[in-house]
Design a protein that fits this description.
Length: about 220
């Protein structure tokens, strides 16, 4: 493409810089959501264990709020993936081919595909896959910490009371609260690890990290 049209090659260079800038912007938004979730979680943990008189269900409220942040971040991840996918298409098919034309392009119709996406931008990743990605990357660990803290709060932190009684909230018996929490976390594990077809555009590949620096000389 660069050989056939210098003007188009220049336009693509500017388009690529624009896509990279948008990738960075959405990456920052993802990080901001995670930062707020971690900050809020730290505040809740500190308050929950500052006194034995503080109710344990503040940790359950923390789980709900962090789950809301998970939903926000999953939505932002879907937008982020749109621009990352475009950047990867350009990298794989334009820059990689310009550096080593003998390997050809990853997709022979990449220009048409990119054109269609510019004409009618579409989300490439489902909500389900976005949730699974953010859970694997960040939120399953955060929610596991809150779960562990809640279990500790209703057991070892209140040794003189029966933990089933301690887990109760107002008129809701402890066994019902524990059942709801258990079902919620089983659902989280299902979303995180259930096998599915991947639609997000991949970047990194496994291999020897020193291979790319090896030379024949």
């Amino acid at each position: 493409m660069v050989e056939d049209s210098t003007g188009l090659g220049s336009v693509m260079a500017h388009a690529y810089r624009g896509e990279i800038d948008r990738v960075g912007t959405w990456r920052q938004r993802l990080d901001e959501t995670t930062t707020w979730a971690v900050t809020l979680m730290a505040a809740i943990l500190t308050w929950a264990f500052s006194s034995a008189d503080n109710p344990h269900y503040i940790l359950l409220i923390g789980i709900v709020v962090v789950t809301i942040f998970l939903g926000i971040e999953a939505r932002r991840y879907r937008d982020y993936d749109v621009f990352r996918s475009r950047a990867r298409v350009i990298q794989e098919n334009l820059f990689a081919n310009a550096l080593d034309p003998s390997q050809g392009t990853e997709s022979h119709d990449w220009r048409a595909e990119l054109s269609r996406d510019y004409r009618k931008p579409t989300l490439k990743v489902s909500v389900y896959e976005a949730l699974a990605n953010r859970l694997r990357r960040v939120y399953l660990a955060l929610l596991s910490v809150l779960l562990g803290a809640w279990v500790f709060r209703i057991t070892a932190f209140a040794p003189r009371q029966d933990w089933l009684t301690t887990a109760g909230i107002a008129r809701f018996p402890g066994i019902a609260v524990i059942a709801v929490v258990g079902v919620f976390y089983v659902a989280l594990l299902g979303v995180t690890f259930w096998p599915r077809e991947r639609h997000a555009k991949g970047e990194f590949r496994e291999g020897d990290p020193d291979d790319w620096k090896e030379t024949d000389g």
